[in-house]
Amino acid sequence: MANRVTISCLGPRPLAIEAGTPAQEATDLMIRHWRDQLEKVLPDRPDLIVLPEACDRPDPLRFPLEEQLPYFRARGNQVRDSLADVAKRHRCYIAYPALTEAADGGWLNEMQLIDREGRVVGTYRKNYPTPDESGRRSVRSGKDAPLFECDFGRVAAAICFDLNFDELRLHYAALKPDLIVFPSMYHGGLMQGYWAYSCRAHFAGAVAGGPCTIVTPLGTTAASSTNYYPFVTATVNLDCAVLHIDGNDDLFPAIKRKYGREVTIREPGYLGSVLLASESDRFRAEEIVAEFGLERIDDYFDRTRNSRMIEVEAEK
Fold first, then answer.
1. Structurally, what CATH architecture does the domain formed by 4-237 represent?
2. In the predicted model, what is the mean pLDDT of residues 178-202?
3. Which of 178, 181, 170, 171 has its CA nearest to residue 154?
C-alpha cells in the first residue's frame, strides 16, 4: 500500500555567535535559532525533519575552536532535549547531528535520531572524518553503520565526507534501506543521486549553506531548496520497486490498464530503469511485482552476472 512520508530538510548557514559569548548564553541563542528554523517546516506536518551536520555548532569563523569545547560542555543535551520536545509535540522524527565530547576528550561527529515520542532511538557516528577532523579536531571515527527502524521504514545515515566512500555505500546497498538521511556541510553533487540509485533508496540531504535535496531511488531530484529559502519539504512514496526496462517493459501497459492511477511507473530517461510505486491503499508494490512476474533490477543484474560466470567457467 502507498507509504507516503513527508520529509523536511533544513540547511541554514551555521548561526553566527560572537567570540566571547558565555557558553550558556550561546546555548540559549542556539535553542532559539533552531526553534525559529523549525517553524518554517512544521506547518507541513513532516514525518521526518533532517538538520545539517553539527547543526548546533556556532559559525567557527566567529566562534573559535578554543571556545567550542566549553560551549559543548555547557550545551550538553539542552539542544537535543529542546528538539525532542518539538518532536513529541508535533509527532515527528528529527535527525539531530551534533559534535559531542568523547570520554577520552576527543570529539564525536554523530547524528541522533529522535522519534515521535521524543526518545533517542539510535545514533550514527560519522565513519570517515576528514583528515582535519581526525587530526586537529580529534574527531573519532564511527565503527558501525546501523539501520534505524522507523514506523515508516528503515533509515540509514551518512554524514558529509562519508559520501565519498564506497565501503559505506556498498554496506548500505546490501542492507536495502528505504531512506538515507544525509546531514552535511558538503553537498556531494552527483554522489547524492549515485547513492540513491545504488542503494535503491530515497535520499534526504540537509546541507548547511547549500541546496537541501530529496532524491528518488532513480537518482533524480524530487525536491530542492533554493538560494532564497534554505529548507525544503516533499512527500515521497516509499512503497516502490526499482525495475530495469528489459523483460518488464511489455508488462507495463497491462499494469496500467488494470490499475490505472493506483500504480505509477516513472522513467527518468537514459538509465534503462523505472520506479514502480503503489498509490493504492489496497495493495503493495511488491504484490504488483509478484502478480505480473516483474524482475527487480538487482535480480536482473545478478542474472547477467551468473550468465557471464557460467560462460567464463565453460571456456576454461
1. 4-Layer Sandwich (3.60)
2. 98
3. 178
